[in-house]
Design goal:
single chain; mainly beta; Jelly Rolls; eight-stranded antiparallel sheet; 1 helix; 26 strands; Pirin family protein; RmlC-like_jellyroll; Pirin_N_dom; Pirin_C_dom
Length: about 325
């Protein structure tokens, strides 16, 4: 998914200077952003209070939206570099096309994982016809320096491993949890899991104390480490945890995101992740000239133009403001 803000603000993420080394309970509120004509998202990362959780650098939550009489998601071709995109649905379908020739319909609890590497472009749209409701999350994973120029590629994994306990089903999106490992390709120590909790369920998930974690609430009423977390909000948990207590007041859906704190500082602007202002500016120019990022074939519409760069150079500002 693209960041469609026409006034795209730069964000420098990464670096371990502001990692919380002990358990915390920091509730992050979303910023509402319009994507196209019919899709509004709740942006949790980057946030005014926190820019990254491990290598997770961007989190949008959308829906559930009734799109029965609407076109649904319509995101034109746009570029990415230096990151992986993770498409995750609870309801509906998304048709993915990219410049490597991939064409794939992604359905609920299937992993659509696109590694941009040095450069890729893609589009996302609701199929025609499409399901009535659309509900999901779009996330980015920053690539470390030694892997950020890998060849672009796309993966689709319809079957993912699960961890179960009374009232809980955890589906592994990326990384490992409690002995289960996702088939998705990763480049840093990371974990992403979809948690389905039944009404009245209580559970304690095992965690890695060297990772920092956050929990995104997709639906339902849930207490995470005794903190109420409502749909569209995210609780940052810090590091140093060996387990995570969960309690569901209703049927609920969560996403657990975590990873080893990301060591490098990153410049993230629009849909591009780099290390310097010049690198971002060169990539923007290449996209506007139609070079480097390839062509998305089959999308009925024009590519998305890049916004103007800010007047001053993009400078590091750390993991938090």
């Amino acid at each position: 998914m693209s960041n469609l803000d026409r006034q795209a603000a730069p964000a420098v993420c990464g670096g371990r200077g502001f990692v919380v080394a002990e358990p915390v309970r920091e509730l992050l509120s979303p910023r509402r952003v319009q994507l196209g004509e019919s899709t509004e998202v709740r942006r949790l990362l980057p946030n005014l209070g926190r820019r990254m959780v491990g290598a997770w650098a961007f989190v949008d939550h959308y829906g559930p939206d009734d799109i029965a009489e609407e076109p649904g998601m319509q995101v034109p071709p746009h570029p990415h570099m230096g990151l992986q995109t993770v498409s995750w649905l609870h309801e509906g379908e998304v048709l993915h096309r990219d410049s490597t020739g991939s064409l794939q319909t992604i359905r609920p609890r299937e992993l659509g994982l696109m590694t941009s590497g040095r450069a890729i472009s893609h589009s996302e749209e609701s199929p025609r016809p499409h399901a009535r409701y659309l509900h999901g999350a779009q996330l980015w994973v920053a690539l470390p320096g030694e892997h950020r120029h890998v060849d672009p590629h796309f993966e689709h994994h319809a079957a993912l491993p699960q961890v179960t306990a009374p009232g809980l089903t955890a589906t592994l999106i990326l990384g490992s949890l409690d002995g289960a490992t996702s088939p998705g390709t990763t480049y840093t120590p990371i974990v992403g899991a979809d948690l389905a909790l039944a009404r009245g369920a209580t559970a304690r998930l095992p965690l890695d104390p060297d990772f920092e974690y956050a929990v995104l609430c997709m639906s339902g009423e849930t207490h995470v480490d005794d903190v109420p977390v409502l749909p569209g909000s995210m609780l940052y948990l810090g590091c140093g945890r060996t387990e995570l207590p969960l309690r569901a007041e209703s049927d609920a859906g969560l996403m657990l995101l975590g990873g080893e704190p990301f060591a490098e500082e990153l410049v993230m602007w629009w849909n591009l992740i780099g290390r310097t202002h010049d690198e971002i500016a060169e990539a923007r120019e290449a996209w506007m000239k139609g070079t480097r990022f390839g062509e998305v074939k089959g999308y009925d519409g024009a590519p998305l133009p890049a916004p103007e760069l800010p007047p001053g150079p993009l400078k590091p500002r750390g993991r938090v403001r």
